Amino acid sequence: MPPAKKDVRPKRARTPAYVKNLRGVKTWKEATNWLEWRGIEDIECITPDQAGIARGKMMPSKKFTSNTSLALPSAVFMATISGGYPENGNGFHYPEDDGDLKLLPDLSTLTVVPWEEDPTAAVICDLVHQDGRSVEFTPRNVLKRVLAAYDKRGLKPVVAPEIEFYLVRKNPDPDYPLTPPVGRSGRAIGGGAGYSIAGVNEFDELIDDIYHFSESQGLEIDTLIHEEGAGQLEINLRHGDPVELADQVFMFKRTIREAALKHDTYATFMAKPIQGQPGSAMHIHQSIIDKKTGRNIFSNEDGSESDAFFHFIGGMQRHVPNALVMLAPYVNSYRRLTQAASAPVNNKWGYDNRTTAFRVPRSDPAARRVENRIPSSDANPYLALAASLACGLLGMLDKTEAEPAVVTAANEDQIDLPRGLLEAVDLFETDNRLTEVLGQSFAATFTAIKRAEFETFMEVISPWEREYLLLNV
C-alpha cells in the first residue's frame, strides 16, 4: 500500500479572534488589522458634546492608523443646543487662547457604522489638553472623574439604563405639532398601549433594523417594549460599567434615529414631544460593588439592607434636586416633570413603588439596586450617570440618613423638584459638595450654557401666547 501523501498546500493564517470582535480592540496594531479585515474605508472619530451630540472628524482609515494627531476647538464643548455661545460671567470664562483639544481614540469602542453605504467605522474619543491633561469639562471625562472618586475608595458602580423614545411622523416645519406615526395597519398609532405586543408589531421592520444595526455594532439590547404613549418605545440595556453603558446609550441614540429615518420616520428623545402624551425617561438602575470582595455593598452578609444602601438613597434625596439640571437639561424637560405626566415629581423612595423618584425593585440581595426614575431621555447619558452616582457617593461619604420608605402613591403631594430650568441652574450652583465632585470647570461651563439656552428660548413666541393673549389682553 503506497504511503499517504503529505498535504503540501500552504496553510491559511488563522484569523485572530479580536479581528472578529464586533466591538473594540486593545492596540493600534489590532485596530489596523480589524479595519483591513473589514475593508473599512472611512472612520468617524466622535465624542459627545454637552448635549450628547456626536462631534468629531471623519477621515480615511489609513490616515487614522498613521499616528495622525486629531483635535477639536474647545469652543465645541461650550456651545448651546441651538449653536450659540454663552457670555462670560458667573464663574464662566472662555480660555484666553481658545486652543484646540486633542482627541484620544478609545480603541475599545471601535465598531462599524452599519447604516453607511461605504464601509465605515466609528470610535469614541476622550479629550485632553495639548500637554496631556484631561479636559475637566467634557462629558465623558466628567463621568470618569466621578468613577475615579469611587475607585479611590475601592468601589465600582454598576448601572443599567432604560431609554424611552417616540417614533413620530416626519415634521420638517417646527411650527407644527408632532403627530404619531402610521404603522403597518395603515392607521395612526394611539396611546394606552403599554407592553402591547401588537403595538411593537406595528413597527416590525423598523425594529428589525434597530436590532440589526445594534448587533452589527456589538450593542446588547436586553428587552424592547411599547410604552404608554402613542408610538412610544423603551429599550432596556444590560447592566455593566458606567462608561461602557453611557457609550452604548450614546451610540444607541444615533442607531435608533438612523433606523427610523430609513423608514421615513423620526425617532425623538425629547422629554415631552407630544402634548397630552406621557413624557420619555431614562431610568438608571444603580448598585455598588466592593472591588476586593466582588460583593454588592447594598446588602449585608445576612441579605439585609446595609447602611451604605440607606446612605446612598439619602444622598440621592439630598442632592438630586440640586443636580436636576443635569438630569432634565432643557426647558422641554420640565413639561415632563408635572403631576399629569406620569413622571415622579417628588424626592421620595420606596420598595417597588413606581410613583417615587427612587425605586428599589424586587430582587435577591446580590442584585439589590436603586432605580433613579427622574432623568429624562433628553439628558446626556454621561452627565446623567455622573450626576446620579455623585449624589449617591456623597450620601455614603456623609452618612446621609434616608427618609422612611413610602408605601403609598407619592405623586399626589406638592412637587418637590425645581419647576423650571433657571431654578434648577441656581440650585446646582449652590451645592458646593456636588460641584466639587463633578469639577468646578464643568459646573461653570454647563450652567453658562443652560442660561444661554434659556435666553434663546425666551425669544420664541409660543402658540399658547398667541391663543390666550393675542385678543384678550
Textual characterization of the structure:
The structure is a single chain. The chain has 473 residues and is of the alpha+beta class. It has 2 domains: 118 residues, Glutamine synthetase, N-terminal domain (Ubiquitin-like (UB roll), Roll); 293 residues, Glutamine synthetase/guanido kinase, catalytic domain (Creatine Kinase, Chain A, domain 2, 2-Layer Sandwich), CATH 3.30.590.10. A hairpin with a 5-residue loop joins strand 8 and strand 9. Catalyzes the ATP-dependent biosynthesis of glutamine from glutamate and ammonia. This is Glutamine synthetase.
CATH fold-level assignment of the largest domain? Creatine Kinase, Chain A, domain 2
Rg, please? 24 Å
Count the beta strands.
Answer: 14
Count the domains: 2
The top-level CATH class of the largest domain is Alpha Beta
Largest sheet: 8 strands, mixed
Low-confidence stretches: none
Question: How helical, in percent, are the residues?
Answer: 25-40%
Query: How many helical elements?
Result: 14
- Shape descriptor reads globular
Mean pLDDT: 92
Keywords for this entry:
Ubiquitin-like (UB roll), alpha+beta, 14 helices, 6-stranded mixed beta sheet, 473 residues
Secondary-structure map:
Blueprint: H1 17-20, H2 28-38, E1 42-48, E2 54-60, H3 61-64, E3 71-73, E4 100-105, E5 111-112, E6 120-128, H4 139-151, E7 155-169, H5 197-201, H6 204-216, E8 221-226, E9 232-237, H7 242-262, E10 265-268, E11 282-290, H8 307-327, H9 333-336, E12 349-351, E13 358-360, E14 370-372, H10 381-398, H11 421-430, H12 432-438, H13 440-457, H14 463-468
Parallel strand pairs: 1-6, 12-13
Antiparallel strand pairs: 1-2, 3-4, 4-6, 5-6, 7-9, 7-10, 7-11, 8-9, 11-14, 13-14
